[in-house]
C-alpha cells in the first residue's frame, strides 16, 4: 500500500501531504517515489533548490517531490521515537525489523528535516507500546499567500491533568514556493 500511495502522490504532483494518527511530530524533506526493490522506504530526497526567505525560513523552490507533515501529538497517546534510537533498540522492541541495518536506519532518518517524540518519559526505554501523556501536544498553521505556502508547527506545554498553565511555542517552520 505504501508503495502505491507514494507512486500516486508523485504522479499527482502533490507538494504537501498532511498526515495524522502516529502521535509523533515530523516533517520530511521533499521526497520522490522510488520502488521497494530500490529502497524499503519508497522515497528518495528531491534535489529541489532550497532558498531562505526574508524571515530566514527555509523554502523549497518548485519541488518535484512531496513534503509530509505530521503535527500529531494531540491527545494523550504518545509513541516511542523508535527510529531516533539505536539500531539495537529497534531490533529489541520490534523483532520484525531485525532485517534493518544501520545504513537503513540512517537513510530513513535522513529523509526527515524535523521530528521526534516531544514527550521525554522514560517509559519507552525498553518497550514500544503507547503511553498516555498529555504534557506536550502540537498543532500546525498553514498559510497560503500567492505562490507561497508556509507551515508553522507549534508545541503546547503543560500537563492538563495536573492543572498546569499551558504555554505555546513555535518549534518549526518551512515553506514551499512555486514559480
The count of DSSP E runs of length 2 or more, i.e. the number of strands, is: 13
Helix content estimate:
10-25%
Please describe the biggest sheet, giving its number of strands, its sense, and whether it closes into a barrel.
Answer: 5 strands, mixed
Segments where pLDDT lies below 50 for 5+ residues? none
Question: Roughly how many Å apart are the termini?
Answer: 32 Å
Output the number of helix runs: 3
What order do the strands of the largest sheet run in, or round the barrel if closed?
A: 5-6-13-12-11
Q: Average the pLDDT over all residues and give the rounded result.
A: 86
- The percentage of residues in β strands lies in 35-45%
Q: Rounded to an integer, what's the Rg over CA atoms?
A: 17 Å
Look at the helices and sheets and give the structural class: mainly beta
Secondary-structure element order, N to C: HEEEEEEEEHHEEEEE
What global shape is seen? flat
Describe this structure in words.
It is a single chain. With 179 residues, the chain is mainly β. It is 15% helix and 37% strand. A five-stranded mixed β-sheet has the order 5-6-13-12-11, with no helix packed on it. Strands 1-7-2-9 form a four-stranded mixed β-sheet. Strands 3-4 form a two-stranded antiparallel sheet. The two termini are 32 Å apart.
Sum up the structure in keywords.
mainly beta, 15% helix, flat, 179 residues, 3 helices
List the helices and strands and how they pair.
Blueprint: H1 2-11, E1 16-18, E2 25-28, E3 31-33, E4 43-45, E5 49-52, E6 58-61, E7 67-71, E8 77-78, H2 87-93, H3 102-110, E9 112-116, E10 131-132, E11 136-145, E12 148-157, E13 167-177
Parallel strand pairs: 1-7, 6-13
Antiparallel strand pairs: 2-7, 2-9, 3-4, 5-6, 8-10, 11-12, 12-13
